[in-house]
Design a protein that fits this description.
- This protein is an all-alpha fold and about 90 residues long.
- The chain contains 6 helices and no strands.
- Helix 1 packs antiparallel against helix 2, helix 2 crosses helix 3 and helix 3 runs parallel beside helix 6.
- The relative contact order is 0.15.
């Protein structure tokens, strides 16, 4: 569930992903953090935190070999959202 307080969202992402990946998202802007939070919330509905953290930091063929963190930091929000949807569909 998305909340209005970006600091809480950022803290939750840090708990899930660690400081370095979230620092990259913060440097890219508030929208990258918000999209990552939304994606994380959806993925956590389907699998555990360890799998979600691994997904965000693993190279994705659908993202031209980039990690979702790198793609989000580059502004490729729609592509990462689509990759997340396809990953969830493959889990079922």
């Amino acid at each position: 569930m998305y909340r209005d307080d970006p600091l809480d969202d950022e803290a939750e992402l840090r708990d899930l992903l660690g400081d370095r990946p979230v620092d990259r998202l913060v440097a890219a802007g508030a929208q990258a953090v918000a999209v990552a939070c939304d994606i994380a919330s959806i993925l956590l509905g389907w699998t555990g935190p360890d799998d979600v953290a691994a997904w965000f930091q693993r190279s994705q063929q659908r993202l031209d070999g980039q990690t979702p963190i790198t793609a989000l930091a580059a502004g490729d929000h729609d592509d990462v959202e689509e990759a997340a949807r396809l990953w969830v569909a493959a889990q079922g």
